[in-house]
UniProtKB/TrEMBL annotation, chains A, B:
Gene3D superfamilies in alphabetical order: PurM-like C-terminal domain, PurM-like, N-terminal domain
Protein name: Hydrogenase expression/formation protein HypE
Gene that encodes the chain: hypE
GO annotation, biological process: protein maturation
Family per similarity comment: Belongs to the HypE family.
Occurrences of domain PurM-like N-terminal (ranges): 32-143
PANTHER family, alphabetized: CARBAMOYL DEHYDRATASE HYPE, HYDROGENASE ISOENZYMES FORMATION PROTEIN HYPE
InterPro entries to which the protein is assigned, alphabetical: HypE, PurM-like_C_dom, PurM-like_C_sf, PurM-like_N, PurM-like_N_sf
Top-level taxon of the source organism: Bacteria
Domain PurM-like C-terminal positions: 155-301
SUPFAM superfamilies named in the record: PurM C-terminal domain-like, PurM N-terminal domain-like
Length: 329, 329
């Protein structure tokens, strides 16, 4: 299970198995989406499979999650999703009403993101060999001229921003998971981020890095950026917006909110001179109302993320090894 | 299971559930890939999930099948695949050696098709909730200027061609399926068709329809074209190239070779004046060496496919209702 968790084991699978097998360097960029030359334009292209359990959770379902996830991966390159594909693997015996509900969620989420579901596929597997519905979305969108957003572009001096409170998606899914149900008033943050990114780009085209902290949470996102860019990251732990209900649930479950998945948040590395303008643009957008400065990019400890704790100390924020929260997306 | 079989139930799911839920007309074209305006170019975009059982079969595996399937869907719009995405759902406990073998097959098949695997994803589901590996590929490619290939363009007078012997993939998979093993020397035809289509387009840009007869076989492909174009199709049954081993296996299993899946074949509707040139171009290409004229497009019985039998009679070739061969791709 750890190999699917978005942590060190996932990264190892990518660098040790898939990158050599596929024989190319584009995958090695390890961004959320690939930016590719096609027909004279720069096209962002991304895919993700969604195997979340249960299919429906407070604030969303596998359908909107799959749309928002791919829309957001494209947004992390600065692209607005133009077209989406949607491939469903249905488990034999899944009620048609469930399929219809997920399909409607897909359509509604695509419309909200301004994207068109242009092509699809449906396969059916034997009863017991699935979990109702697995959804795989892919998407394409144009990267605007002059925009070059990727993990390698983090620079010492960059200000690190987060677009809102963290940990909501992971805690919302766990709160209704069979065998782990607990009463908590938390709703997933699943949302499309293309509009927020467009607003940030209106403040400056020179955004260095964007990343949506999904599997592995903010901790994994920052570690991947530090590794890709060869810089260090210093996180101000108490500046990270953690809702009280998330903090309580994490305390109860023995989780660190920094490692919990989000599906409607982004972290941004922004040149210091543009940070105020970008933060203001974020706060003026519904998806960025809770935006905050949470740290900075430094030349020290390259590849490493360090948190300044409330007590004045520091601690290393590692890449999670395996799966803290299985089947969260 | 029938809803995933590529027959009437699959079509019903598409028109009754997904098209209204996704709220767009592009899906309604029901071609193998969507052709979309993007950045001033026409981009073909397609996706398919592969849940074939077993993962490895004579002539291929789920990895090359997934690459060739999407490459071929793009080719059916006249596009060469430029970039592919590849999302894997792994079952917990699947041996790493199996994952590596499938990944290598993906890389090798992409290289053979001249495409780059540009982005990917891996999820892991609990043991028992998968079948080793499900692979979902998507692809994008440019449609050349002046090319407009889609099912709606079939016209009375068009000549119907097939690129080679039919039924090999389905019989090859069945021949090694647990519980159904039978000795037969048949190898899947899984292959990329982008090069063959380029050779056909060099003979004429005015190809009307291309379709790869996968799930539901040649019968389903012809029925979909007849329905989309409002024309009739007359098939000369004895002109369809059916290898003896396929005929024997189908006899043994009670299957009609016209309904058996292919993964490296295409059917083409070509204006009569270009048919000889296209047939010659096909036969000169390795993937089209066994090409043959198998019928014609007519104004009579619109939406219906009729076979002229060897005895001089005719019979209706229906769209299969459900699943003749489950989990074949």
């Amino acid at each position: 299970m750890g190999h699917g968790g978005g942590g060190a084991l996932s990264a190892e699978l990518m660098t040790e198995v898939f990158a050599p097998a596929y024989g190319n360097d584009i995958l090695a960029v390890l961004g959320d989406s690939a930016v590719l030359p096609l027909g004279g334009a720069r096209v962002a292209f991304s895919t993700d499979s969604y195997v979340v359990r249960p299919l429906f959770f407070p604030g969303g379902c596998v359908g909107d999650l799959a749309v928002n996830g791919t829309v957001n991966d494209l947004a992390m390159s600065g692209a607005r999703a133009a077209y989406l594909s949607c491939a469903l693997v249905l488990e034999e015996g899944t009620e048609l009403a469930v399929v219809e509900r997920v399909a409607r969620a897909i359509g509604t989420a695509a419309e909200a993101a301004g994207a068109v579901v242009a092509t699809g596929d449906t396969k059916v597997v034997d009863a017991g060999h699935g979990d109702g519905i697995y959804v795989t979305t892919s998407g394409v969108g144009l990267v605007p001229d002059g925009v070059d957003i990727r993990p390698q572009r983090a620079r010492p001096g960059d200000v690190v921003l987060v677009s809102g409170p963290v940990g909501l998606h992971g805690v919302a899914v766990l709160s209704v998971r069979e065998g782990l149900e607990f009463g908590v008033d938390v709703v997933s943050d699943t949302a499309p981020l293309g509009g927020l990114v467009a607003a940030m780009l209106a403040a400056t085209r020179d955004l260095h890095v964007l990343r949506d902290p999904t599997r592995g949470g903010v901790a994994a996102a920052l570690n991947e950026i530090a590794a890709a860019s060869g810089t260090g990251v210093v996180l101000t732990e108490e500046a990270v917006p953690v809702p009280e209900a998330v903090a309580n649930a994490c305390g109860f479950l023995g989780l660190d909110p920094l490692y919990v998945a989000n599906e409607g948040r982004l972290v941004a590395f922004v040149p210091r001179e543009h940070a105020d303008a970008v933060l203001a643009a974020m706060r003026a957008h519904p998806q960025g109302a809770g935006a905050a400065v949470i740290g900075e990019c430094v030349a020290e400890h390259p590849g490493m993320v360090v948190a300044r704790t409330g007590l004045g100390g520091t601690r290393v924020v590692d890449l999670p090894v395996g799966e803290q929260l299985p089947r969260i997306c």
